[in-house]
Automatic annotation (TrEMBL):
Domain Protein kinase residue range list: 78-284
Any one Gene Ontology molecular-function term assigned to this protein's record: cAMP-dependent protein kinase activity
Organism of this sequence: Phytophthora infestans
Record's keyword annotation contains Repeat: no
Gene Ontology CC terms: cAMP-dependent protein kinase complex
Keyword terms: ATP-binding, Kinase, Nucleotide-binding, Serine/threonine-protein kinase, Transferase
Ranges for domain Cyclic nucleotide-binding: 1-103
CDD domains reported for this sequence: CAP_ED (cd00038)
Name of the molecule in the record: Cyclic nucleotide-binding domain
InterPro entries given in the database record: cNMP-bd_dom (IPR000595), cNMP-bd_dom_sf (IPR018490), Kinase-like_dom_sf (IPR011009), Prot_kinase_dom (IPR000719), RmlC-like_jellyroll (IPR014710)
């Protein structure tokens, strides 16, 4: 990246020129024109950009001429520098196409949706996925608070049994209705298989990461976890118990320790739990 200053009335770029990057306007104004009659002239100002054709085409030929209306300072950013910051640009464009296609698909599905029906987020509805909330049997409740309720549910008539996670969000404060979201309970493997060194894809990691977040939310509701406990200090053992690890000994005592809800100390809100500290695992 480098700074480029265009003086008033200076033509910075001519139509047909090539550049390996694009310009971001820091201050000033730019007039963008074209020789084609059907292309409207544009006035660009601070935080606008020009020359972005270099980002999406192999031959980055300018389609417009650029003239400074007043003294204008720009930041010239090369394509390779931008990719180092945000990733490969073609892959970003491809992900954007998929995102827009998914958004369009969901909007179309919402138009056809009826009360108590599910709007699919996947490209194709799986055969075992129910079309309505009436196609589910509640197996048990996982957790609940004033807003959310998470339940383990079974698809009616499924053989073998198909279990899913149902999260219901109450919106009764706004309207007399609830919002339900249905998740697969297991995508491609058990949690225990990760400790055996088996390779797993992104879907496996995303699913169990979501389960950890739900577990942490449950612990917060029970008053167990404080804001000073780092998320990396949680683990799930083979028995399925959520544990706290790497909690270091805090030698200082806090005056308000008796009224504090924290059990993992820090230098700002420090106090001792037992006077000995916990360096392996701790349960509340």
């Amino acid at each position: 990246m480098r700074t480029v200053v265009f003086e008033p009335n200076q033509v910075g770029l001519h139509e047909g020129m090539t550049e390996p990057g694009f310009f971001l306007i820091i201050s000033g104004r730019i007039e963008s024109t074209s020789k084609m009659d059907n292309v409207v002239s544009l006035e660009l100002k601070t935080l606008d950009y020009f020359g972005e054709i270099a980002l999406v085409r192999r031959r980055s030929i300018r389609q417009r001429s650029i003239r400074a209306i007043e003294s204008t300072e720009c930041l010239f950013i090369r394509k390779d520098a931008l990719e180092l910051a945000v990733g490969n640009l073609p892959s970003i464009l491809e992900k954007n196409k998929l995102r827009r296609a998914r958004k369009t698909r969901i909007l179309e599905a919402q138009k056809e949706a009826k009360p108590n029906t599910f709007v699919p987020f996947d490209n194709e509805r799986k055969p075992e996925m129910p079309h309505s909330i009436n196609g589910l049997d509640v197996v048990g409740s996982v957790m609940s608070d004033l807003i959310n309720t998470v339940r383990l549910v079974e698809v009616k008539g499924s053989s073998p049994s198909v279990y899913l996670t149902l999260r219901s969000v109450s919106k009764q404060a706004i309207m007399d209705a609830d919002i339900h979201m249905l998740y697969n309970t297991q995508i491609d493997g058990t949690l225990e298989s990760s400790s055996d060194g088996e390779p797993h894809g992104e879907s496996f990691v995303r699913y169990y990461a979501a389960q950890v977040v739900m577990a942490l939310e449950f612990m917060h509701l029970e008053g167990v976890v404080s804001r000073t406990v780092d998320p990396t200090n949680r683990m799930v053992d083979r028995s399925g118990n959520l544990r706290m690890i790497n909690l270091r000994y805090v030698p200082l005592s806090c005056v308000s320790a008796r009224s504090s809800i924290e059990f993992a100390g820090c230098f700002v809100y420090a106090f001792q739990i037992t006077g000995e500290g916990h360096n392996i695992a701790a349960d509340y």
